[in-house]
Design a protein that fits this description.
single chain; about 260 residues; alpha+beta; four-stranded mixed β-sheet; three-stranded antiparallel β-sheet; about 30% helix; globular
Length: about 260
Amino acid sequence: MTATGPVSGDAQAASIPPTLPLFFKEVAALDAGTHSALKLDRSKGFAYAAVANALPLGLSEIALAAQYYPIVITGGPNPMAVAILGYRAEENLFVDAKGVWQGDTYIPAYVRAFPFILIEPPGADTIYLGIETNAPLLGKKGDALFADGKPTELVTEAMRFAMAYREDLKRAAEFAKALDGFALLQANEARLNFKSGGIARLDGFRVVDPVKLEGLDDATFLDWRKRGWLNSLYAIMQSSTRWGQIVNLANGRRAEGVKPE
């Protein structure tokens, strides 16, 4: 499969994905003619991520993200490891009203990749780099996407980052599917008790069952060690202590007048 950058004409129009993921509303393939004047200004912050109460993680991110967020496994036929960022729909407790991400906290790759996205036309061998055309980070100020009609290093790095994240998500999906396939996951819920009263309950996710993990056969355990999965596995289990951070941030929002439901 070939990775490329800007495209134009019919290839651009035909390559827009029919279903867009979180943060994306109007995607266009990055084009030197159409987007030559666009600049990226990341100093505008992360207000666009304030609606994400959970985000998918690549395999290499799990151990680091687990130091800051509860990590759970989604249900369904395509399970994924996700970082929990809030307990209410469309609320990210790690982004404040000014679009500032909580200091000294790992920011998931999904967030850092925005406003870029990979476009993979069905049946094609080429992957294009696209952008969210209405992203607040794009405008007339910041770092140029093109210079003299050619992509800048910023675009080259964005493509490189997006491709690496794509492969990391694939590895994470393989890992999560193995956990599911070996029946090591159990349905769980989190009950959050707030200082000033009130309880919130989150369910619909799964965690690793330590008892079932103890019964995993030695050959599989060794195979997972060779694959580099054990670090992520134990990180997910240990991340359960991070639910307290969710409660602390929610308490802070409540003190500011934003009450939990």
